[in-house]
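Project channel, design review

CF: Before we commit to the Sphingobacterium micropteri constructs, I'd like one complete example in the thread so the newer folks can see what an input/output pair looks like. Taking FAD:protein FMN transferase.
RD: sounds good, go ahead.
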Amino acid sequence: MLKEVLISCLTCLGCLAYAQQPKFTIDGKAQGTSYHIQYYASNSIVSKIQIDSVLQVIDKSMSLYDDQSLITSFNKTERLLKLDEHMTKVVKRSFDLYRMSDGIFDITVMPLVNLWGFGPNRIHTFPERQTIDSILQFVGMDKLVLNDNMLTKSDERVQVDLNGIAQGYSVDVIAQFLDGKGVESYLVELGGEIKVKGYKDVNIPFEIAIESPQNGKYSNVILQLTDRAVTTSGNYRRTFDLEGRRIHHHINPQDGYPIQNNVASVTVIAPTAMDADGYDNVFLAMTPEQGIELANRLEDIDVYIIYQDEDRFKEAFSADFHRYIKNN
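CF: and here is what came back for FAD:protein FMN transferase:
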């Protein structure tokens, strides 16, 4: 995932005279991962307790690990559920991505993800085609209806998993909280999903290094961002080998099998972290050519794709991605 590159002008004495407001940092654990916030203000106006409180509210809505969350209730028995504001926004955007991607992005794929060993239990043999087909009967967002804040499923076996978009949404909510406190420059990172606003110093954008799929090192691409969100996702993470084949955790909701293509990682830049988070799932499921063509059609969405061509890694960029790359 993405890691922040802390190249601060405060390490250069010549820049001290031009430094903006003091920098404050908050670090913590949430949603099964870690978060890091840095913001600039005249004083410490945001606390860790406040950030943790914001994230706890989101967990009560969409955490699969919370037995009392709304999403857990829906997955267990509820055929009809009244959603809160958070889950309503995420599910609504999920429908947008589902339609835009012709069903590639699908929040009902959870039973297939578990079947292929990416849930609580690892598998030791390939699932039978008959088993996959039986599960596909209750996979598909066409089996869900969202009417205002009421979510209905046509089959009680339908289960939803919002992890492919909810973490990005959480970053956006924290950013909105900082906005409400009057913070004009900040970086919010949660589980590799990042959103920045303003500058880390006078007219100096935040700098983000992109992790390469080659041995977990950083690629040569460093981004300079302001007022944007970015995330990187890769098929080299959350994988295991089974019967001589590499199994990826991205499952095709249409045929029930793990996606097999030559895409190693995608980095998505978008106005919101929710969109960056959601779109990276879509681009990972496409060929590099399809992904670049889609990004060039979309407004305010840019992508950088690292893919494998035989034994070499190659790169592909959407038309406007280069404007974010730092010139060495």
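RD: helpful, thanks. The chain has eight helices and 16 strands.
CF: Helices lie at 48-62, 70-76, 85-100, 110-115, 129-136, 163-180, 273-284, 288-297.
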